[in-house]
Amino acid sequence: MNLDLDSLAPEVVAGIRLVPVVHERVDLAAVVRALLAEVKPAGVAVELPATLREVVDKAVDRLPEISVVVSEEPGEDALLWVVTPGDPAVEALRWAREEGRKSFLVDPDVKYGERHRDPVPDPYALWHLGAAEYLGEMRKQAASWPSSPADAQREAGMAHFLQRARQELDQLGESGPLMAFLGVAHVERVAQLVGKETASPFARRQRTHLELRNLHPESLSGLMADAPLVHAVHEQLRSIHPQAEEQPSAQLEATLAQTVSRRVPLERAGFRIIAGEKDQQKHRRRRSIPAYAARVAGRQIGSVSAVDRQSLGAVVWQIASRSYLEQTQEKVAVWQRRLFFDFSRRYTLQQGWLVPGLYEWVVAARGVADDNLAWEVFDVARTYPWQRDSAELPTARLDGDELDLGTRKVRFRRRFFRVKQRPLRVPVGERAGDEAPEDWLKGFDSLGICSYPKEDLVIEDYADFLQKKAVSVLSAERRRTEPFSTSLMDGIDVRETLRNLHEGRIYVREERRAPGQAGSVVVIFEDESTGSQYPYLMTWHGEHSQESDMAFYATDPFQQVVGPGITRATYGGFLMTSPPGRLFDVWEDSDYAPVVSKAEVLVRAAVDYSEQRLVVHVAPRPPGAGLKRYAGLQGKRLVHLPLASLSPVTLKKIRVVHLLAGHDKRALAKRYIW
To answer: If you compute the radius of gyration of the chain from its CA atoms, what whole number of angstroms results?
Structure first.
């Protein structure tokens, strides 16, 4: 993208050029950086109160660590401004300090009146329209935007401070222009005032309580208009200039190898932790993501590299989906990828924007898969490797619309309105922190293994649903329909009547109950005989009369340690039968020794232990003739329900099982089970 200086920054008076910007948006920060690199002005001015000068300089010096400026005045909400690398004002101030140029804060510190939100279009449009046309059109539209008396007072003050800044540069012998970066809503009116005679504004000269805080990493996503990863890539591109030959697809696999895996070294033979990272590994992962994104999601504007937010969405999906596979052992299908991008795009357009952000990505990921994929997307999109939990400054945390300053909580208002209005809390579940995950192995010192009660309730309810569904399927097969003659039987069959409407007759139906009730339930996700994908074989009894006995084969749970004494496995198939306390270990039962297939073992055991005539069989394919004959010899019947006929969302939920090393783990399991 080429830059048209006269269109982007017209010279309103001798030596002063005004540049309209959209606050807190990375796209405009790239335009600012490109303009400054081309013009190299004598000084820069930004729309910030002069009363913040001292803390703003400190905050800019701390970058890339993000700070928050907090000011409290009696009778007013606390003023809050987040100093991010992707803010156009911050980019201008940062350039001035790096190049040794003068910088000025030209917004008079007056009390805000009625605040309003300006209808700013998505800055991503500048990549298609060009920066000059995008900003030029916004300047024209800004004339019709609402304005308050406080705005007029501020604009008059900006014009006065710009005149003084130009005079100061002239006194220093600086002949280059003064470039002022102001919000697009104010530029036209300031341009009309800056050439006229102005007076010093009636405004605060200093603030009574002003402080600078380090912002906690978990609060970044709630306060930044763009996802933290967008700012991280912008920061990465400030120091590197990736060339086309540095973007081969082979780089993806190398990056994924560093960013996807979260396993830590084994501390005990047979155990593998998947939900924890050592600090060094976590740091490498956080640095690798923006480094890779900078290579594949960057584009040129003038002489500098800038973030392409649309391409960044593909990077987020690539890394998140692979991490999802690593954590859950579930592969994301092509249709899910297509639906993710289609839904997030449509959802964004409905809100009047062009390119999805963190919130849209998370909502779309949860919709096409589950909360686990949503978490992985959120975890990638919030990546900002330079932010620390604790620093040389006190750390502030965000809690709803309150800021936790450690010693007290204060209600705040933003220095600028959020460009994209979003809930401060992204809709993903909380997960436990990485508190020395190697110590989780000590949790297996307990005797005995038990299940997680909340999962037990879900799977018991689903077994009850399958039993009722099997009975209803058989009842439907036995239903009889005939033309109405002397009796309505069990009611009019509307479907059959409409199908034969040309006959002019009414059809009635007779319902016939299924021959018996459903007993055992066996669900087969994948059959396996000699394979090693589902090596874990187990049989356990219900703990009370409301629980069933259960036998299953699953992935090795000790390869997925997710908490202290808590493992995770994926069912290949399971059997449930009640009343409890009767099921012998089917994997050690000599009656099933000749049977090779694990699925067939479960089906035969389901037939043997069922106290009812009907046995529910859920699998991708119907049971073979041998199994039907086996059931028939015992007076039982296998009722097949195709796996594809059931809700994939529910199946995914019940397919995961967590094994706890002792009942004492149930009290803390909810923090680690995801």
So the answer is: 33
pLDDT digits (tens, 9 = 90+) for 328-338: 778 888 999 99
- Among candidates 63, 125, 73, 10, which has minimal Cα distance to 413? 73
pTM above 0.70, yes or no: yes
- The identity of residue 450, as a single letter, is C
Structure tokens of 217?
């990493």
Q: Three-state DSSP class for 604?
A: helix
541: closest CA among 566, 515, 576, 517?
Answer: 576
Alpha-carbon gap, residue 656 to 329, rounded angstroms: 10
- Residue 433 CB partners (closer than 8 Å, separation 6+): none
Q: Give me 293's structure tokens.
A: 């994104």
Distances (CA, A) of 310 to 127, 316, 570: 11, 10, 35
Rounded Cα distance, 599 and 590, in Å: 16
CA dihedral of residues 309, 311, 315, 316 (deg, nearest 10): 40
CB 562 within 8 A of CB 669: no
Task: Provide the 10 A C-beta neighbour count for residue 311.
Answer: 15
Top-confidence range, 205-214, 422-431, 608-617: 608-617
Task: Please say whether the beta carbons of 429 and 674 come within 8 A.
Answer: yes
Residue with tokens 């102001």: 182
Which range among 63-77, 377-391, 424-438, 466-480 has the greatest average pLDDT? 377-391
